[in-house]
Amino acid sequence: MAVKNSNIILEVNSVSMKFGELYANKDVSFEVERGAIVALIGPNGAGKTTIFNCIAGYFKPFSGEILFEGEKITRLPSWKIARKGLARTFQVVRPLKEMTVLDNIMIGAYQKESNTSKAKEVAMTCMKTCFLEEWADKTAGDMTEGNKKRLEVARALATSPKLLLLDEAVAGLTSTEVQEMVAVIRNLKGQGISILMVEHIMEAVMPIADKVVVLSHGEKI
Questions:
Q1: pLDDT in tens, 6-21
Q2: Residues 95, 26: contact at Cβ < 8 Å?
Q3: Within its chain, how far is the Cα of 131 from the centroid?
Q4: Fewer Cβ atoms within 10 A, N terminus or C terminus of the chain?
Q5: Does any domain span residue 95?
Q6: How far is CA 51 from CA 39, 160, 187, 194, in A?
Q7: Are β-strands 194-198 and 163-167 bridged in parallel, bridged antiparallel, or unpaired?
Q8: Does 89 fall in a domain?
Q9: Is 129 inside a domain boundary?
Q10: pLDDT exceeds 50 at position 168
C-alpha cells in the first residue's frame, strides 16, 4: 500500500511509455506539491503530452506507477481519474461553438452538480476566475483564440479539480493574451488548485512556476 504524503498531490514514479519499440517516455519521475505550479518543458517530441496522457488515464504506461493523493491511478480509466479531482485541458480547443459560453462551462459543472441553479453558479464563478463574464451569453464560436483557451480552462475548472493539467495553454496566443492567461493561472493557484503545465513559452512559465521539469527525447534531464 502506498504511503500518503499530505504535501504531495501527484507522484510520477519511473514511468515509461512506448509505442511499438519506440519509447515516448522512459523512466520519468517527478512530483507535484499541493498548491504548487509545476512546468513541464522541453522541445517538440520530448514526450510532454504523452506523460500528460498517462497521468490523465488516456494512455496506460508500459511500466512505472502514478499516484494521485497517495492512491495508485496508473491503470484507471480517464473518467475515474477525473472523478477523483484531476482535470486536463487540450492543446486544440474544441468548444461547442453554437452554445453560449455559460452553457459550455455548465457542462463541466454538471459532472459534480446535478442541480441546474448550482451548476450555473459554479459556471459563473469559473467565468469570473477566467475573465470571461462579458461572454456569458455569447456563442463560443465567436470567441478569439485567446478567449477560447480561457474557456477551455474554465470548463476544466468547473469540474472542481484538485489538480489541473494545462497542455500548452498559451500556444498561438499574442503577448497580451499570454499575460491574460498567466493572470488566470495565478487566480487558480490563489484558489488552492495544484497545476501541472506543459509549455514552450517561457514568458508564461518563468513568472509563475514553482518548479520546472525538463524532458528531452522522452527522458527527464
A1: 899 999 999 999 999 9
A2: no
A3: 18
A4: N
A5: no
A6: 13, 22, 25, 17
A7: parallel
A8: no
A9: no
A10: yes
Pick the closest to residue 126 from 96, 106, 144, 142 (CA basis). 106
Domain count, the chain: 1
Between the alpha carbon of residue 93 and those of residues 90, 96, 146, 213, the distances in Å are 6, 10, 10, 25
Examine residue 158 and state whether it is found in any structural domain, yes or no.
no
Q: Assess contact for 108 and 156: CB atoms under 8 A.
A: yes
* CATH number of the domain residue 13 falls in: 3.40.50.300
Amino acid at 174: T
pLDDT in tens, 48-78: 999 999 999 999 999 999 999 999 999 999 9
pLDDT at res. 131: 96
User: Is the pLDDT confidence value at 35 over 70?
Assistant: yes
- Residues 151 and 101: beta-carbon distance below 8 Å: yes
Beta strands in the chain (DSSP E): 8-19, 22-33, 37-41, 63-68, 71-72, 86-88, 163-167, 194-198, 211-216, 219-220
In tens, the pLDDT along 210-221 reads 999 999 999 999
Q: What is the 3-state secondary structure (H, E, C) of 29-49?
A: EEEEECCCEEEEECCCCCCHH
Residue 3 pLDDT more than 70? no
Cα–Cα distance between 39 and 215 in angstroms, integer? Answer: 11
Closest among 23, 21, 9 to 51, alpha carbons compared = 23
Q: Is 3 helix (H, G, I), strand (E, B) or coil?
A: coil
